[in-house]
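Data deposition worksheet. Section B asks for the primary sequence of the deposited chain exactly as it was used as input, without tags or linkers unless they were present during the calculation. Section C holds the resulting structure in token form. Section D is free text for depositor observations; keep each observation to a single sentence. Incomplete worksheets are returned to the depositor.
Section A, Depositor: J.P.
Section B:
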Amino acid sequence: MHKKNGDKRATMRATEDRGDSSAARVAFYGRALKVVIALIALAAVAASVPALSRADFPLASLLIYTIGMGFIAMPLCLYHELLLKRRMHGA
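Section C:
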């Protein structure tokens, strides 16, 4: 049980603290998502450099980009979206 000490703002401050931590988590995962996407794109570009001197299609670059986006960035994106929805609905 909560002890009533006349501070009516205590529950509001507790809610704000939870809101601040969820906002920080959402911001962190948003930045992490952008960094992961940039790293995947850079790895794909680096893998395509040897194929630029030849007439070959840079298959390794396509595989790195597709697999990286599908199996690394997409789950992170979905989790970030879930956090945003939870924050909007106040859960």
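Section D:
The chain is about 80% helix and 0% strand.
Residues 78 and 84 are 10 Å apart (CA to CA).
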